[in-house]
Amino acid sequence: MRESITLKKILLAASLILLGLGVFLELPYGFYTLLRLVVCITGVYLGWLAYQKQKWGWFTVFALLALLFNPLVVVHLERELWVVIDLIAGVILLASAWGLKK
Predict the structure, then answer these.
(1) Closest C-alpha among 47, 48, 32 to residue 85
(2) Residue 38 in this model has a pLDDT that exceeds 80
């Protein structure tokens, strides 16, 4: 039976697309604000799912991800460091697709 599209899948896909664009393209500042917002929301939502499943390692990872990508209290780093962080965040989000399954 095919699994329906869930909020988790939508947020993961949106975050991965934005992170990929952020790594490979140099875009206007507004794009990075959107990236921060979407990845932060994804981190909060996935953190909530991890909390419900009592997966404390994942919960901690997503809480840190949400804090780092928080669009309200912006962490200012050099672009080269953000590229590395974006790649790591993408790998974490990809791994969570399997790590948070039922």
Answers:
(1) 32
(2) yes
What are the Cα distances from residue 8, in Å, to 5, 26, 75, 84, 85? 8, 27, 25, 24, 21
* Contact (Cβ atoms closer than 8 angstroms) between residue 32 and residue 22: yes
Q: Please tell me the distance from the alpha carbon of residue 54 to that of residue 80, in angstroms, as a whole number.
A: 35
* Domains in the chain: boundaries: 7-99
Mean pLDDT value across residues 2-27? 87
Instruction: Indicate whether this model's pTM tops 0.85.
Output: yes
Token representation of residue 25:
């393209």
For residue 83, what are its two tokens?
Answer: 């590229």
